[in-house]
Amino acid sequence: MPACPICSEWLETVRQREGLFYLCPICNGRALTIPQVRRVLGDRLATKLLRLMKLSRRASERSCPFCAGRMRVISAAEPSLELDACQACSVVWFDAPTYEALPEGSVETTASLALQATEIVAEIRLKELKEREKEREEEERDKKKRKKRRAGTSTIDPLV
Fold it and tell me: Is 21 within a domain?
């Protein structure tokens, strides 16, 4: 049975619509697997945590609730998080305040990620179009100025 890495109490298995997580009845911390993080908190956060788990070299003071191996500290800037995770078990430990501070309803599906990508591409294209239009306007102004200069010099007859 998994034990809490903070208070060593046995973790309770909690079933919810999105799947299972493991809750400490004393400190209210919880262990979530990466697939569970994906279902509850979204693809983007799950992918970020998985990548950070692979890159982290900083050892945690806490042991994994499942394999009892030393977890690693993972830090994310957006959202601002510092968590303990076990790469071998694909488990992330959330203390109660950290988990409760995460935004609810921020689940992002792969479809919403595709929509975000489309939106980003559209914004880039719009910016490019605006820049091209600005360049065209500047070219038109320059042409008018040159035309005025030419017209001004050709009307003056030095022989008169």
Answer: yes
Tell me, what amino acid is at 152?
G
pTM: 0.61
Q: 79 and 140 share a domain?
A: no
Residues 46-76: tens digit of each pLDDT: 888 889 999 888 999 999 999 999 999 998 7
Dihedrals phi, psi of 33, to nearest 5 degrees: -80, 160
Residue whose entry in the numeric block shows the structure tokens 């689940």: 107
The pLDDT assigned to 105 comes to 46
| Domain count of the fold of the chain | 2
HEC per residue, the chain? CCECCCCCCECEEEEECCEEEEECCCCCCEEEEHHHHHHHHCHHHHHHHHHHHHHCCCEEEEECCCCCCEEEEEEECCCCEEEEEECCCCEEEECHHHHHHCCCCCCCCHHHHHHHHHHHHHHHHHHHHHHHHHHHHHHHHHHHHHHHHHHHHHCCCCCC
